[in-house]
Write a structure and sequence with these properties.
By secondary structure, the chain is mainly alpha-helical. The protein has helices at about 5-20, 25-95, 120-125, 130-135, 145-155.
């Protein structure tokens, strides 16, 4: 960077005062200040953009490294699971005495042929509800006529004959 000391700045100010004049010097100084501020902001923006791009590249490198590590771990876990699965199937075949282990897990566990899914009986479910719950929730337990229901819910004190 350019190194300006106090003596150099004073010399530039004196020359500017003589060349520009005392009337226009404040306006020119203000304009120069604005231009220098814009230049500093532009330089700061460029620095920030460069830093962001460097950080982005570092993050991409870190991401690829993590993905490689995850793939390696996944492969080792799969290999271990496969070896454990083969060992289990072999010991299972030896324990059950079956000659081949190609049958898999589902062939040994079958549902009995006599099993039937329970039927959905609405009345049975309705009857299994306790009376105290029906009373608390206002479930009808007896058949009522329309007039009886109106009379039941009529506000007290009003009777019509």
């Amino acid at each position: 960077m350019i190194d300006f000391g106090f003596d150099k700045l004073a010399l530039i100010g004196a020359v500017a005062l003589v060349v520009i004049g005392p009337e226009r010097l404040p306006r020119v100084a203000r304009t120069v200040g604005h231009l220098l501020g814009k230049a500093q902001r532009y330089v700061a923006d460029v620095k920030a953009e460069v830093n962001r791009s460097i950080e982005l590249e570092e993050l991409k490198k870190m991401k690829t490294g993590m993905e490689d590590a995850v793939r390696d771990v996944e492969q080792t876990v799969r290999q271990e699971v496969d070896t454990a699965n083969k060992a289990f199937e072999q010991s299972w075949a030896e324990a059950t005495g079956s000659g081949s282990s190609d049958q898999g897990y589902g062939s040994t566990l079958r549902t009995p042929a006599s099993y039937q899914a329970p039927k959905k009986n609405w009345r049975l479910k309705r009857g299994a509800t306790p009376q105290w719950y029906k009373q608390r929730e206002g479930v009808r337990r007896h058949v009522q006529s329309g007039a009886a229901r109106v009379a039941r819910f009529r506000p007290p004190g009003r009777r019509s004959f």
